[in-house]
Amino acid sequence: MTDPNKPDQNLDDDWAAAMSEQQGDAPGEDEDPWAAAMAEQAAAEGADGEPAAEEPSKPAQAAGDSVFQPLEQGSTKTVPRDLEMIMDIPVKLTVELGRTKLTIKQLLELAQGSVIELEGLAGEPMDILINGYLIAQGEVVVVEDKYGIRITEIITPSERVQKLNR
């Protein structure tokens, strides 16, 4: 143990311990990582300095093969399981009766009991939107004093594009 009355001895002992630790951890001449890497590269290149040809022991695999499962034509067991992951995601369903454009003057003139004329015709199918995208059309029904909509037509992707253009 060191003497607390001699602080210089404490510093000298600490420095000596630190230096011996550092010298013990440092790699010697034999353990030089650069030398080991250079020796490994020289062995790989061979005697003539050309890179050694790799042995075709097994065919090359893409990195994705080990990460992703391959798609198989007859495999339908994975589809329902994959769909189960998204079944609880909420979506917003909107039924659109029609649209119209108003000026600010017309908007300010609206009062209780005012009627706004829409572009849609009476009896015309209404648009059913999921998260703002048209997916179907239907007609209004009343079920136990509540409004509902009966789907009459599912919109195909090509029809969706046509509807977006109007």
TrEMBL record:
GO terms for molecular function: cytoskeletal motor activity. FliN is one of three proteins (FliG, FliN, FliM) that form the rotor-mounted switch complex (C ring), located at the base of the basal body. This complex interacts with the CheY and CheZ chemotaxis proteins, in addition to contacting components of the motor that determine the direction of flagellar rotation. One of its GO terms (biological process) is bacterial-type flagellum-dependent cell motility. Belongs to the FliN/MopA/SpaO family. Signal peptide: none annotated. It comes from Halomonas nitroreducens. Keywords: Bacterial flagellum, Cell membrane, Cell projection, Chemotaxis, Cilium, Flagellar rotation, Flagellum, Membrane. This is Flagellar motor switch protein FliN. GO terms for cellular component: bacterial-type flagellum basal body; plasma membrane. It is a peripheral membrane protein. It comes from the Bacteria. Residues 1-76 are annotated as: Disordered. It is found in: Cell membrane; Bacterial flagellum basal body. The gene is fliN. Gene3D superfamilies: SpoA-like. Residues 85-155 form the Flagellar motor switch protein FliN-like C-terminal domain. Its main location: membrane. Residues 34-46 have a biased composition (Low complexity).
